[in-house]
Amino acid sequence: MPLLLAIVHTVVGIKFSSTMVQMFGSGTSILTMSLVTAGIMLVVYGGYFLATYWGCKSMIRPKKINIAYETLSIYQIKISSV
């Protein structure tokens, strides 16, 4: 959802910028401004996506269990209950 909002925001911003450039004139090409905007958007939202992905992945991933310790504990419980 945030990426969709960013895309819509970028399209509206580019159209507004294009209008302003046409009114006031500038040596900067619309293509150049579009590519810079797209690059900034990819860096910001791509970084946000990666940070969120890695954060969620670390919460979901099961913790590693020391098998030897768990086995020893099970045997101790069986011996003490006999």
Can you describe this structure?
With 82 residues, this protein is mainly alpha-helical. The chain has helices at residues 2-24, 30-60, 67-81. Helix 1 (2-24) runs antiparallel to helix 2. The radius of gyration is 27 Å and the shape is elongated. The model has no long low-confidence stretch (mean pLDDT 76).
Helical content band: over 70%
Task: Count up the helices.
Answer: 3
The quaternary organization reads as: single chain
**Uncertain regions spanning at least 5 consecutive residues:** none
Mean pLDDT level: 76
Work out the radius of gyration: 27 Å
Shape: elongated
Determine the structural class based on helices, strands and strand pairing: mainly alpha
What does the largest sheet look like? none
Gap from first CA to last CA: 59 Å
Strand content: under 5%
Order of helices and strands: HHH
Instruction: Give the tally of β-strands.
Output: 0
List keywords for this structure.
single chain
Summarize the structure.
The chain is an all-alpha fold and 82 residues long. Helices cover 84% and strands 0% of the residues. The chain has helices at 2-24, 30-60, 67-81.
SSE diagram, text form:
Layout: H1 2-24, H2 30-60, H3 67-81
Helix pairs in contact: 1-2
